[in-house]
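Input chain follows. Return structure tokens only.
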Amino acid sequence: MPVADALLAAARASARTTLSDAEADARAELARARAEADHILDEARAEGAEAATKTAAGQLAAARRQAREMILGARRRAYDAVRSGAIEQLAREASTPEGRRLAERLEVLVRDRVGPSASVRRSGPDTVTAVAEDANRRAVLGPEALVDHALMSLADEIDAVWA
């Protein structure tokens, strides 16, 4: 039996070596798989972070646009309210002595714009709107034009209010 014992010992040694080699291969394969999984996970995180950054940037840009539109809308409504209030106030003042003097001054201005031979009239009895006409030339000055001119002359001050 020494031969059988020797063969058995050799088979056991070969099995231990094969098992040891298989375990080493399995550990190496497991390490390689873990490294690949870590690499895939890192790439996925980077792609996710990049996608999140792009999404956040898009959402931020959209929110800024919406905020800007809201601000501009509020400014427009405030400007329009001031403008219409001033126009209405000028119209209400038409029958006052100041309103009549303003209307007379507007008549002079529209005549100057159209020419000395222009026919000049007010657009109504209690109005500060003056109209001058001569052939193919016409000029109209009233509360809207006066308020618009005043607001344009205050453009820098109005911009400063919004700053």
